[in-house]
Structure formats: structure tokens, C-alpha cells
């Protein structure tokens, strides 16, 4: 029976801790910035599942903010930021690979020209 008051006190402290979560305004700003950066490098939600997921999570974070569910908003915003950064990295990786392919094609062409020049 001595556990009941202790459990009740812990429950009150836990609830108070949840209520004390500050609004994650800075995280929302960082997430918005990550989404904008991903779009700026060419990520498109219709082609990138990661960017689509980031946009969806960001929308949920904004809805959580409106409901003052700050802990949920922070978690959704953090996940959205990571998804947006992944989408950006994938676009940059793809573009780098395309550039590498172009350079390799040019190198191959130059080697062939050099071989033809040496043969003459």
C-alpha cells in the first residue's frame, strides 16, 4: 500500500514533465530550411519518397504545434529534417554520379584519340 502514493506522485511528475515541453520553434525552422534546401538542389516529392515523407512529417509537426503537442511536434520535425537531408544527399549523389559518368566518357574518348594518333 505504500507504493500507491509513490506511484501517484510519479505519475503527477511525469505529466508535469510532458506539459513543460517548450514549443519546438527552432526545430521547425531548421526543418523548413532542410526542406527548402532539398528542393533547391532538385529533390521533388513526386520522385523522392524521402522528400515526400519529410513533407508529410513536417505537416504533422505543424498540426501537433497547433494542438500544443510540443513533444510530438519536435519528434515529427526532427524526423522530417533527417528525411529532407537524406533526400538532398541522394540528389547530390545522383548528380555527382552523372558528372562522373560524363567525365569517364570523355576520358575514354580521349584515350581512343591518343591511341589512333600513336598508330599513325
TrEMBL record:
<keyword id="KW-0732">Signal</keyword>
<dbReference type="Pfam" id="PF14346">
    <property type="entry name" value="DUF4398"/>
</dbReference>
<dbReference type="InterPro" id="IPR025511">
    <property type="entry name" value="DUF4398"/>
</dbReference>
<protein>
    <recommendedName>
        <fullName>DUF4398 domain-containing protein</fullName>
    </recommendedName>
</protein>
<feature type="signal peptide">
    <location>
        <begin position="1"/>
        <end position="19"/>
    </location>
</feature>
<keyword id="KW-0175">Coiled coil</keyword>
<feature type="coiled-coil region">
    <location>
        <begin position="44"/>
        <end position="120"/>
    </location>
</feature>
<feature type="domain" description="DUF4398">
    <location>
        <begin position="26"/>
        <end position="100"/>
    </location>
</feature>
Amino acid at each position: 500500500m505504500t507504493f500507491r502514493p509513490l506511484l501517484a506522485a510519479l505519475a503527477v511528475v511525469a505529466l508535469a514533465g510532458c506539459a513543460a515541453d517548450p514549443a519546438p520553434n527552432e526545430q521547425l525552422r531548421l526543418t523548413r530550411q532542410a526542406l527548402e534546401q532539398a528542393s533547391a538542389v532538385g529533390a521533388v516529392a513526386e520522385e523522392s519518397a524521402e522528400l515526400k515523407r519529410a513533407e508529410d512529417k513536417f505537416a504533422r509537426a505543424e498540426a501537433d504545434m497547433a494542438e500544443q503537442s510540443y513533444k510530438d511536434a519536435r519528434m515529427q520535425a526532427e524526423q522530417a529534417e533527417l528525411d529532407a537531408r537524406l533526400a538532398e544527399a541522394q540528389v547530390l549523389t545522383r548528380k555527382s554520379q552523372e558528372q562522373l559518368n560524363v567525365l569517364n566518357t570523355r576520358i575514354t574518348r580521349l584515350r581512343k584519340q591518343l591511341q589512333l594518333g600513336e598508330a599513325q
